[in-house]
Amino acid sequence: MAARIYKTPMNAMQSGQALTGKWVLEFEPAEARKADPLTGWAGSGDTQRQVKLKFGDVDAAKAYADKYGISYSVVPTPEKKLKLQAYADNFR
Questions:
Q1: Model confidence at 61, in pLDDT bands (50, 70, 90)?
Q2: Residue 78: pLDDT band by 50, 70, 90 thresholds?
Q3: Could you tell me which CATH number the domain at 2-91 has?
Q4: Which end of the chain has fewer CB atoms within 10 angstroms, the N or the C?
Q5: What residue ranges do the domains of the chain occupy?
Q6: DSSP assignment of 24-59
Q7: How far is CA 91 from CA 11, 82, 83, 84, in A?
């Protein structure tokens, strides 16, 4: 089993910081999704794909993965770039 550990990003539709800052351990897909012949919905028999574990910090997520023998890769958090501009810049 392989997993990814990443920090939850800020919601693009809101400016608040709620529900951010948590670290998530998410398992990599073990098999490709295939279309159901009856409904056409995509699905697979991989149940680990549904599991997302949340931790307070990256060290706790790494400790959990090490304890249960899960190979993992930590996805670095992208640097936050602020574009500062004045309201008057909209009319130039």
A1: very high
A2: confident
A3: 3.30.160
A4: C
A5: 2-91
A6: EEEEPPSS--EE-TTT--EE-S-SGGG-EEEESSHH
A7: 28, 20, 17, 15
* 48, two tokens: 């680990």
Tell me the two tokens of residue 79.
């640097």
Q: Are 30 and 46 in contact (CB under 8 A)?
A: yes
Task: Classify residue 8 by burial, with Cβ atoms within 10 Å: 0-12, 13-18, 19+.
Answer: middle
The more confidently predicted of residues 65 and 31 is 65
Is the Cα dihedral 55, 59, 63, 69 positive or negative?
A: positive
The mean of the pLDDT values for the chain is: 88
Nearest Cα neighbor of 64 from 49, 77, 75, 53 is 53
